Amino acid sequence: MRQRHAIFIFLALLIASIAFSGPASAQRVKDMGQFQGLRANQLTGYGIVVGLAGTGDDSLDYSTLGMKGTVSRFGLTLPPGVNPALKNAAAVMITAELPPFAKPGQRLDVTVSALGKAKSLRGGTLVLAPLYGADGQIYAMVQGNLVIGGLGVDAADGSKLTVNVPSSGRIAGGATVERAVDTGFATGDWLTFNLHQFDATNAKRVTDAINAAIPNSASMIDGASIAIRAVGNGDDRMRLMSQIENLSVQRAEPPAKVIVNARTGTVVINGAVRVGTAAVAQGKLTVSIKESPTVVQPAPFSRGETAVEQSSDISVEQEYRPMMMVRPTASLSELVDAINRMGVPPGDLVAILEALSQAGALTAELVII
Fold first, then answer.
1. Residues 115-129: what's their mean pLDDT?
2. C-alpha to C-alpha distance for 28 and 109, rounded to whole angstroms
3. 112 with 92: CB under 8 angstroms?
């Protein structure tokens, strides 16, 4: 009776684990890439920030010229040779991103950064300025009060205190879209879906998932792009894109890589890395030099001079570390445990990983940046 009861509990747990366990690396298609053409466009512009509390550009020529051009729009002309010494104004560069399908009248967030020697933009107001695209056309106009996350204070004795970056700020919703960008979404017979990373296996699985939901509609262009047949108007295409983006795909295991940042000593190992059988010995040699100078005084009434006699003590210490046996690992956790048992610092770990790679015991691509 007890045996039957134990078998029943085991089967119940097995069924529950199967029912609640899904694919560990299943992802939506929208998280693996994006449709071609649906991208943001960078906008840049030049402007003048006014209303600063004496932290502006002072007498920079391009700031003065920019202010002259700004006030000339209101019918004010400064006499030739006059330098207004604009301590309360600063020349700035303005950057923003125009999202796909943005329409005239919609608002954009912009970033404003000092172009010259302005110490702080806190309390400033950006005067109306245009934002240009890569083609030289105006796509938005921007104006508004800056929000600065930094603080800078100068004392009379020359000491300074700076928190974050006071020479850069943002204007939330400060730009207004004036022109839309034609993405070509509603034209053509095909849509192209581009994966974030090249992987032939992932491209095949995404293509198979699309064809399973919409038969004979997708084909691989290469290991990073998939062509999808599109018909109908914009509404039909958006419904098709929504259906494709929400498909679930079992993501392929990435290539085994070990990323080493030689400047900071950072080591990142992905889950596909495996290590074969190897023996590792890592030693540590410490050389200490201790200087003990002694002052030697001459005898009284002699013609000698006071001298310094050098005394050096050199010692060498070599730490004994036995050879470690690294056994074949089947998971990332086992590899981390093996590394931790060796107790080596990150700098020595990089040398060990390079040696394992050269010995053929590291089944991964070693990337040093």
1. 87
2. 29
3. yes
